[in-house]
Specification:
The structure is a homodimer. The first copy, chain A, is of the alpha+beta class. Helices cover 27% and strands 36% of the residues of chain A. At the A-B interface, strand 4, strand 8, strand 9 and strand 11 of A face strand 4, strand 8, strand 9 and strand 11 of B. Chain A binds a DNA duplex through residues 4-6, 30-32, 40-44, 46-47, 49-50, 60-66.
DNA sequence: CAGTGGTCTAGACCACTGA
DNA sequence: CAGTGGTCTAGACCACTGA
């Protein structure tokens, strides 16, 4: 497990910053100084510091120098796995049931749906994700047929919409909202819960370039599914 | 707004991948080929492709070449703001009430608490976050006095524990778990809810180096607070 | 206007690994 | 074992901007 020189330089300064030996606002040595200290070329120093700047630990300003960034936001990485994989990773059998599927015009009263549809229509899929035949998540999804024309030909019994989209349609931008709610009676029935039971709600929208692709709302019965986020290591 | 050559190469391939012109698994030209195509040195090509690899759009394998990645998980950035700031950002008055505060030995039956305490003790703080005097979140926090000795002197009426820690103790690693639950009656009373009401639960642990710093469990009444995650732009 | 980082060149040797 | 990417060198010119 040999570390390259640029990784060495990077991790040296990462350690100094995270340990507090270098405090926010403090200036780092200039590249010339580090070239001498590490006995390497300027390109190597530059790559190391550039990657720290990309990671947000330092800021580089021409003529002024390189500085430790001011305390960063509490931001963590949230991994939202494909549900089919998540279920199979837990050693359970996965199945997706289509409850409702139709292609329709966007509801004119919903600016959200009009935005999503663009010049095309909307494919709406309501479905249920099952783990070992037990309801795992209830999903309502809208897909822009203008942005994803191939979607109308997909057999969702083979590949649920989320899985298919993940594999076939790259997105460049996404937003998610996570909240708790009490299920309504219709939803409760599908999920085999008492009405009013707590559920985790996850709503996501995705874009490719400026174009809306899909939006989805998923309900997970509490105790069935936890989201996990992490930072570091 | 001039674009550097490496940015040009990077964005050319980013566009090809995002538009679907290059599909997952497809091979990209080798660096020699791209040097000729762009009339530049290999280092420039290498930087462009390395940054795409870091971003996860491509994978590079020695001898085999460079390939468009197969997308795996939706990984997004989750921002967990300091609650005092989050409340004030919504234009509401913020207040923190300490419900319980004590320094104690770790419970010997809890390996988790023993791990957290290390050679020291545990400061436990239970408290309530208020927005315009309405309960916003109920918090139970454990802090290692060995890792954060200064914590015992802090007046939490001035600065709630989360805010103080964010400002004074850098962490290098964190894990969070997010779930929905039905509140128990004790908790419901503090939050002015009916027992069994749905709440969003957020549990976090933080480390500095290998050392545990704090762990916290926060309950948010549903409708009171959504977590937001995003990716891109 | 001089110090600093941004970018680039034209080479080089090496590590890895799949044909 | 040969093709590919990983890393590095010792230069260079330039853009930006703060002293």
């Amino acid at each position: 497990m040999k570390q390259s020189l640029q990784e060495q330089i990077r991790s040296d300064f990462e350690d100094l910053i995270l340990s507090g030996a270098l405090v926010p606002g403090e200036r780092l040595p200039i590249e010339q100084e580090l070239m001498q200290r590490y006995g390497c070329s300027r390109m190597t120093v530059n790559k190391a510091l550039s990657s720290l700047a990309t990671a947000g630990l330092i800021e580089r300003r021409k003529r002024a120098g390189t500085f430790v960034s001011r305390p960063r936001v509490h931001s963590m990485t949230l991994e939202i796995p494909d549900l089919a994989h998540a279920v199979r990773d837990r050693g359970q059998r996965y199945r997706f049931i289509v409850l409702n599927r139709r292609i329709r015009k966007p509801s004119a009263s919903s600016t959200n749906e009009v935005d999503l549809a663009g010049n095309g229509k909307i494919l709406q899929i309501d479905g249920l994700h099952l783990a070992d035949e037990i309801p795992f998540a209830l999903e309502k999804r809208l897909i822009s047929t203008a942005a994803v024309p191939d979607i109308v030909k997909v057999d969702f019994a083979v590949s649920p919409p989320g899985t298919w989209l993940l594999r076939h349609v790259p997105w460049t931008q996404a937003e998610a909202r996570i909240y708790a709610l009490a299920v309504l009676s219709v939803e409760a029935q599908h999920l085999q819960l008492e009405p009013g039971s707590p559920c985790l709600g996850l709503e996501r929208q995705t874009w490719r370039g400026g174009e809306r692709l899909t939006e989805v709302r998923q309900l997970f019965p509490s105790e069935q599914y936890d989201l996990v986020a992490h930072f570091g290591s």
